[in-house]
């Protein structure tokens, strides 16, 4: 019925010069954007929670070792 109809959508995002919180690279960002790319965001997140991840893995390893290898895949 409306096969010939075209709808155009225009976003009005204001890009501002920013600096990546992880690598320090300059980029054009919008809103609360802090990182130049997803890898930088993931790397920052990994570094922020590294101690908790290490302790969780250490506890899992100790439980498996004490239990004779239970829970291994």
Summarize the SSE layout with pairings.
Elements: E1 16-19, E2 26-29, H1 38-48, H2 50-66
Antiparallel strand pairs: 1-2
Plain-language structure description:
The chain has 73 residues and is of the alpha+beta class. The protein has a domain at 38-68. 38% of the residues lie in helices and 11% in strands. It is built from two helices and two strands, in the order ββαα. A two-stranded antiparallel ribbon has the order 1-2. It starts with 15 loop residues before the first strand and ends in a 7-residue tail after the last helix. The model has no long low-confidence stretch (mean pLDDT 88).
Structural class: alpha+beta
Mean pLDDT: 88
- Please compute the radius of gyration using only Cα atoms: 23 Å
Assembly state (oligomeric):
single chain
User: Per DSSP, what share of the residues sits in E-state strands of 2 or more residues?
Assistant: 5-15%
Strand order of the largest sheet: 1-2
Give a short account of the largest sheet: 2 strands, antiparallel
Question: Helix count?
Answer: 2
**Outline type:** elongated
SSE topology string:
EEHH
Concise account of the structure shown:
The chain is of the alpha+beta class and 73 residues long. The chain has a domain at 38-68. Helices cover 38% and strands 11% of the residues.
């Amino acid at each position: 019925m409306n096969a010939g109809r075209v709808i155009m959508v225009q976003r009005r995002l204001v890009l501002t010069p920013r600096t990546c919180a992880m690598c320090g690279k300059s980029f054009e960002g919008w809103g609360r954007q802090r990182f130049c790319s997803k890898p930088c965001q993931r790397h920052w997140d990994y570094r922020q929670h590294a101690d908790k991840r290490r302790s969780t893995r250490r506890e899992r390893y100790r439980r498996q070792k004490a239990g004779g290898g239970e829970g291994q895949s």
